[in-house]
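tool=predict chain=A
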Amino acid sequence: MKTRYAEIPAYGTKDGSEIRELMHPDHHGNRTQSLAEAIVAPGAQTRLHRHGRTEEIYHITRGKGLMRLGDQAFVVAVGDTVCIPPGTPHNIRNTGETPLHILCACSPAYSHEDTELLSG
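tool=predict ok
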């Protein structure tokens, strides 16, 4: 299986980020995980949310931000990788002046149905 970035349309997710599904079982034939690129505009943040079943891994490829993971908040920048266990409230805010780019790996694969928006 192979995908080309330029051929993948972006869409908005429930958390407010722009997503490109680089590889997802619903579209590409892989079986159990997904890989996407999320982009968060300067000054913007994703909505606080959690996934009941899905473990996520974020890898920052451009920009910088403030990651909220459960009761913790910490700075992230290019080269940082964060594991988000299932059920953990999280969001990320772009604190830079350029778009924040994040590779998001999910297992099982991302689904809107497994995304619960939270207040706060």
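Residues 30-117 form a domain with the Jelly Rolls fold (CATH 2.60.120.10). The chain is about 5% helix and 50% strand.
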